[in-house]
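Re: beginner question about structure tokens

> Can someone show what the tokenized structure looks like for a real chain? I only ever see the sequence side.

Sure, here's an example I had lying around. Input first:
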Amino acid sequence: MTRIGLIGGTFDPFHNGHRRLVEAVLISGQVDRVILMVAGQQPHKTKVKVSAAGYRFEMALRGVADLSQVEVSDLEIRRPGRSYTVDTLALLRGQLAPEDEIVLVYGSDVLFDLTTWRSPEIILSSADVLIAHRGGIGQQAAKDRAEQLRRDFSARIDFLNAPMLELSATEVREAAVRGELDTGKIPERVAALITRHDLYGYDEELARVDPAVWHQLADYECQVRPLLNHKRLLHSLNVMRYAMHLANKHGVSVEKAGIAGLMHDCAKCLEAHTVLHYARLAGDPELLEPALAHGPAGAWLARHQFGIEDPEILRAIHYHTTGSGDMSVLDLLIYVADKVEPARTYHNLEAIREAAETDLVQAMRLCLVEVEAFLERENKPSHPYAQAALEKLGIPTHHPPAPDKQETRLTLEQ
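And the corresponding structure tokens:
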């Protein structure tokens, strides 16, 4: 028999309070291993913006990377819609051996909320509960409440001898927004991730987006997640957030920008023959080369698998690798966001980002100049669609001899 401590949370961000709780549970000897359950869409946080699941999962992974007895689970974030503890327990139970025991680990504040959750009687009959004291909840009050739950539900509740948890994810997140990450409060690996991807860089601005939009994006992320490796998912989330920031600056639909940014690479990690098949179905023979086909393939997939019908979104996905001679503001925005999202690093990046704040056409021009310089160094031709964009913007192009049919025309797409 294995006793498994289940610690759920948004982990937005994962901080040293979470880490200390995990360590205390393991040291206590009351469990054999720990599963960190990254929370899906929580029913009691319907009006609160929570960072994308892919970010939170990656932060949790990095926060406990050196603890061999700890597993980070994406069970909840793989499922669309609201996540309820009673459902998570049932699904997790199906993955464990019949003799394994689940121990729910919470802070003491949960004792006063648990009866408002869905099916508390099933939760308390399905698992033991291990409680760590939290600041703001008196220890005697917590013990009295535990005793009441034992009487009312025959709950099996014990208390954990652990340091009182004082760290607030909200305070750590607010400090991150200000660029004041404190490695005394957050693991270094997590801090490095936040810094590289600027995870909270637009948080105050994006917190004003309608919660319904975030819920929709969370569902789309859940659906696209199985198609992408973790690097591509982080890139797509970066493009989503940066595109939403630029949309807010330029009067474009933040919802459309977010969906297009999240979905722009949805076909990128598929097998090459599958990408080509979808690209052919999209009906654009000019974008069938290996480095470019995921654009039209992604647009086809977005429409036929994810049910996205908006022609502006589909067009932005279709042309995000090359641009075109007649680009909408959303097209420009997604092209630029893809090239200069926060984790990108190449020449002239800051100049492009600076231009993008006020003039997307100029940002596009700078992007195309960089692409053209790269192609010229490699003695490769521009794609016809990129040439049309260059000519529209008055940028001289070079035209080396036509390549062999097997040779790929390059872009800055990585």
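Each token stands for a local structural state, so reading them left to right follows the chain. Confidence is low (pLDDT under 50) at residues 405-414.
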